[in-house]
């Protein structure tokens, strides 16, 4: 069962069931680089064009949470995250990473910082020359200090893991086609901060 993100903070937000509400949290952050290894090719490209590994460079990201408060205390929510980043060594196209997760969160302590742990499960779409949709999961640790009854900050670190298929070709430049992703667990970290509106 998924546990995941956001949660009310302070006594005003982790209150009685009849006071449970919704939260909307747009956020911005910074994503770590993503490394891809090439699969073994029985007919490899010429040495001059062969690529053994590619990396989506670290860059900014943005997204949002739509969350429903529950009386655990905690949240169930929908998480969307978007990143567009150059690839290294240089490639003509950028790598775009879009993640959609159903998630949840559990408040660890009902104090002023409202620390929480969270998890999510869903899909991640990698898009460069072609696209690949892979199952993915996430784990998070964060805080959500409340500013007013309707507003709070939210800051977290979230790790993602995506399972790509063998011989994925979304990074295969059609002019060279020297790189096919080896099936593997692709990992990435994000540090995000946002502003929560409660209603």
Structure report:
This protein has 199 residues and is mostly beta strands. The protein contains one helix and eleven strands; from the N terminus they run H-E-E-E-E-E-E-E-E-E-E-E. It has a single domain, classed as Beta Barrel (Porin). It has an eight-stranded antiparallel beta barrel with strand order 1-4-5-7-8-9-10-11. The N terminus is likely disordered.
Low-confidence stretches: 1-12
Structural class: mainly beta
- Any idea what the radius of gyration is? 19 Å
Return the average pLDDT rounded to an integer.
85
User: What's the total count of β strands?
Assistant: 11
Strand order of the largest sheet: 1-4-5-7-8-9-10-11
Straight-line N-to-C gap: 26 Å
Determine the strand fraction and express it as a percent band. over 45%
Helix content: under 10%
Tally of helical runs = 1
Brief account:
By secondary structure, the protein is mainly beta. The protein is 2% helix and 55% strand.
Search tags:
single chain; 199 residues; mainly beta; Porin; eight-stranded antiparallel β-barrel; 11 strands; disordered N terminus
Task: Map the helices and strands.
Blueprint: H1 10-13, E1 22-31, E2 34-37, E3 53-56, E4 59-70, E5 74-85, E6 87-88, E7 95-107, E8 116-127, E9 131-143, E10 151-163, E11 185-198
Antiparallel strand pairs: 1-4, 1-11, 2-3, 3-6, 4-5, 5-7, 7-8, 8-9, 9-10, 10-11
